[in-house]
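Response to reviewer comment R2.3. The reviewers asked that we include at least one raw input/output pair. We reproduce the pair for 5'-deoxynucleotidase here without editing.
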Amino acid sequence: MPRTGWVLREVKNPETVAEHTFRLAIISWLSAEKRNFNVKRAILIALFHDLCEVFAGDITPFLYYPKLPKSKSERRRILMKWARLSQKDKEKIGKTKFKKEKDGCLKLIKFLNPRLAKELFSSWINYEKGSSREGKFVNQLNRIETLIQSIEYFGIKDEVAGTNWWEWTEEIVEDSLLLKFLEVIQEKFYGGVIGSAKEKKELKNILGFLLEIGRLKKMPRTLWVSLGVKNPETVAGHLFTTALMTWVFGIGRKEIDLKRSLKMALCHEMPSVYTGDFITPFSKILPKDEKERRKIFEKWPRLPKKGKEKIFFEDYQKERKALEKLTQKLEPTLKKEIVELWDEYKTNLTPEARFVNQINVLAVLLQALLYQRKDKNLPIGWIWEWAFEKCECPIILKFLEELKEKFYKKSLIQKAFFKVFGLKYAP
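Raw output as returned:
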């Protein structure tokens, strides 16, 4: 789902809601750490804040602007300035927006068990009403992330970018740390010297980090590109999905630290900023021709153990070097945490790493099933096999069975799975 504000401004290939949410979750994590807030709560509020849009759609105040003209040139003129409405109109628009989004949220949580539904809805209300310091904080960060994205799209000239993002952001940002962050953004893009204060330098480096990981919003997943999928998900979109699924399947599990698992899910593909998105171990053996590539994916490639280890070690070294570069200017404690989380994920040696690795496989499978609805010939049998080999968590295995029931009729399930495992189908 592309963000409506960018569509109205005719941005080509605008970011999706999922991609926006990914970077908001990252900035919420990093900023909440600096403020000694509840980091897990901040990350979850960020992940949940726009989920109501599954049913409500991505709503921007401009959709309710009573005088938004149909003419593109006139509409652009208004969009380049903040819609300066009266307080009465703002309240009316706010109530309309809140009701529609609340209805969407209530509709969505009907699919969840009571515990999940309660946490998601309370976090969403927290964000909307600012009923906790984390809710207020993430709401302000949402404006800042959008401001950064607007500068990335339009630059800084008023005749191109307009002034509305700065005004929209400054309307609500009041946190002392975030006010300093706005100063850093202004000095970075509009000129001026960032002061020598340690905190400002740290914020400058966080801004640089956020700009770099913003590349993941535009980076399509190589697996889907290789299979010829049109408009495939990006790395940022995948990271959002993985983090959200980590919460869904991880809540209440005593053997894992959920906060650590959420962070791991958000950063497990960060090296792709510089390395590109790998399909380990397929990257080394894929032909250029799409039809030939699809043949490779007809079955699970069986590589020798030594071959797998060699590929893993080569990729690990490249990715580790890329992540060191990406995080090099971050505050040492934060850099150490991100690198350790990624390393933990790659080596798969802790309960959290094993869990998030399984969630990653599940996220890939779910995305493949959604794509197969549009392309019935998409070869995904090998992903099913990969999932059953990789996953051992009882609740995830149960979910795999539910996926079979959801996406296939019984006869098709039997045919597909007998074929995958080389058995003779006898209805």
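The first helix runs from residue 4 to 8. Residues 222-235+246-420 form a domain with the Hypothetical protein af1432 fold (CATH 1.10.3210.10). Further pairs are available on request from the corresponding author.
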